[in-house]
Amino acid sequence: EAQVTQNPRYLITVxxxxxxxxxxxxxxxxxxxxxxxxxxxxxxxxYYSMNVEVTDKGDxxxxxxxxxxxxxxxxxxxxxxxxxxxxxxxxxxxxxxxAGGGNEQFFGPGTRLxxx
Amino acid sequence: xxxxxxxxxxxxxxxxxxxxxxxxxxxxxxxLFWYQQHAGEAPTFLSYNVLxxxxxxxxxxxxxxxxxxxxxxxxxxxxxKDSASYLCAVRAYSGAGSYQLTFGKGTKLSVIP
Lengths: 116, 113
What we know:
Shape of chain A: globular
Structural class of chain A: mainly beta
Order of helices and strands of chain B: EEEEEEEEEEE
Largest sheet of chain A: 7 strands, mixed
Structural class of chain B: mainly beta
Radius of gyration of chain B: 14 Å
Oligomer: heterodimer
Order of helices and strands of chain A: EEEEEEEEEEE
């Protein structure tokens, strides 16, 4: 089944304890992206990757890191989480983001993170 | 940067038609998407427009006017299961061969009997 998976789905942690949220897709998609979703603010892009070893900052990259060493995986790393990073996080992928087609994004199920 | 505006909330009656508007200001416009998101779930793709005009897909249609920076999503024969948030997203060229997708804050639609 074509899908985007994220782990963990739920996480409660404490300030300063490094964590990684994994994201994997099995559709051979080039483009992958991380978003956070907060009430009243909508979906905001954290980082995106056009292809392997190519990553760019989105609108809210502070406090986050990503890597894209292989096509299927795009982990999100919080080196020193803080309470303002408490949010619902979505990973998404699409075939590409280039012109010429819909290239809609497929979203993972979400990771609900609470930082105490 | 991009600026995308949608109404925050709308209410409509089962069986009726509702139009959800989206206006945007961006440079390097390269397409507009509509997504549906039920509470607590991931967004799912509904429609895509890159040229002016109407795209129809069953009960859902989406319209785009690039010169006006305007799109709408039209939902016909509303059903209770259409109660969800509807997200407008704009794709734009951000330089150096890269494109970025920016989402509006979403419109929460409540369908009432």
